[in-house]
Amino acid sequence: MVNEDDEVVLQGVVNGKIPSYSLETKLRDCKRAVYIRRLALERITGKSVDGLPMEGFDYDSILGQCCEMPIGYVQIPVGVAGPLLLDGVEFYVPMATTEGCLVASTNRGCKAIYVSGGATSVLLKDGMTRAPVVRFGTAKRAADLKFFLEEPLNFETLASVFNKSSRFGRLQTIRCAIAGKNLYIRFTCSTGDAMGMNMVSKGVQNVLDYLQPKFPDMDIIGISGNYCSDKKPAAVNWIEGRGKSIVCEAVIKEQVVKQVLKTTVDSLVELNVLKNLTGSAMAGALGGFNAHASNIVSALFLATGQDPAQNIESSHCITMMEAVNNGQDLHVSVTMPSIEVGTVGGGTQLGSQSACLNLLGVKGASKESAGANARQLAKVVAAAVLAGEVSLMSAIAAGQLVKSHMKYNRSNKDV
Ligand code: ADP
Q1: Is residue 47 annotated as a catalytic residue, yes or no?
Q2: Whole-angstrom Cα distance, residue 96 to residue 284?
Q3: For the chain, which end, N or C, has fewer CB atoms within 10 Å of the first or last residue's CB respectively?
Q4: Residues in the ligand 1 pocket, defined by CB under 6 Å
Q5: Which helix (H) or strand (E) element contains residue 106?
Q6: Distance from the alpha carbon of residue 193 to the mean position of ligand 1, in angstroms
Q7: Checking DSSP bridges between strand 89-96 and strand 78-86, what pairing results, if any?
Q8: H-state helical runs in 116-253
Q9: How far is Cα 398 from Cα 35, in angstroms, rounded to an integer?
Q10: Burial of 83 from C-beta contacts in 10 A (0-12 / 13-18 / 19+)
Q11: Residue-wise pLDDT tens digits, 63-113
Q12: Are residues 191 and 271 located together in one domain of the fold?
């Protein structure tokens, strides 16, 4: 039964006198706001949301930060794969997914890597980007600004303007692209342990404010001009990188390929060339030279409070496989140029997500060196992708083997 006080508010929301979005402010009680919003929704639509849980969630923690007009939360099971032996350290990888087999398969890949001595990773680059679009009266003027921004002598001044809004955001590069009278200015900066979109945007705004009086004919069309490029497939991220660029490798021993992965080194190398390289080229892939990087990236992103929409560029990955040690063992690597992760900000501080970050030992801001936790998380993402690639590719290679055995054993009458 709805009590009298709640009923009055509920009526107000149903008849449109109280905007649903104002409930948290009006009631000063986030949980009660959720309760009334749900009831109002059920009355308005005539549909029940009974299966969507409401209890057991801290609605104060998302206010003004993660989600507006909450009515409950979706449950996603979290599995664990591991130990994942990476750079000599064991990690247990939390994966939020509803895809059966994904955790089991990644776990098998972790095992193959573990018994072969582990994986090694290198961070190649670490910088978040934002690219505003500005317009001039002529292409010549757009080019004037391009040359001004790319002039090395101007960098120090531009960096000090950019850097003033954050302790962590530090300008690294400015790269410009021109389309006629329009200029796209891609700023890259370090962002400590934050994924960094807010940080980079604030720095960019500082620079635009500084440039406006110097280039009064500059018309700022948008702080984001899509040359960043955020949450869209784009060659610029694949080529230049965005967030963390990581390469991660392992040598899987011949015995392990046979016993754990149930296939052969030759089958894996051949499949990788024909599927991940040639097949993806035939499909016109952009950064999709892999078997299923986005499966692992998405599951880890959901578990650790990353922005799931950034799975698009964060899953860019080329998987390489080669026979080494006289053709006996398998060298496998994943190269991922745009893994966008943070351990502070966004959804990372919510209870469940921060527990998963804690399991990985990368919760919150790094005490040793700003950015170390986010960089470590990106390496774990790449290494987990490596495990996922090894395992799925083996399953497919083994499937082919089964098929070809069927075909070539036809003459064998007892089949
Ligand atoms: P984002 O830029 O990823 O959208 P925020 O806007 O939430 O994330 O920025 C991160 C916030 O956390 C900033 O206010 C920043 O000052 C603070 N912060 C505290 N410690 C760190 C750290 N080690 N690295 C980055 N940011 C940090």
Answers
A1: no
A2: 30
A3: N
A4: 166-168, 191-199, 342, 344-346, 365-366, 370
A5: helix 102-115
A6: 7
A7: antiparallel
A8: 139-150, 152-163, 197-214, 235-240
A9: 52
A10: middle
A11: 999 999 999 999 999 999 999 999 999 999 999 999 999 999 999 999 999
A12: no
Residue nearest ligand 1's atom 11 by CA: 345
* Tokens 């030992």 sit on residue: 361
* Model pLDDT for residues 280-313, shown as the tens digit of each residue: 999 999 999 999 999 999 999 999 999 999 999 9
Q: Is the pTM of this model over 0.85?
A: yes
Helices within 245-310 (DSSP H only): 254-259, 265-271, 280-282, 293-304
Residue 38 lies in a domain: yes
Residue 405 is a catalytic residue:
yes
Q: Which residues contact 117 (CB under 8 A, 6 or more apart)?
A: 85, 250, 251
Among the candidates 189, 222, 255, a domain finishes at: 222
Atom of ligand 1 nearest to the CA of 365: 23
- Cα 406 to averaged position of ligand 1 atoms, centre (Å): 57
113 shares a domain with 259: yes
Catalytic residue of the set 126, 230, 240, 307:
307
Length of the chain: 415
* Residue range 42-73, pLDDT digits in tens: 999 999 999 999 999 999 999 999 999 999 99
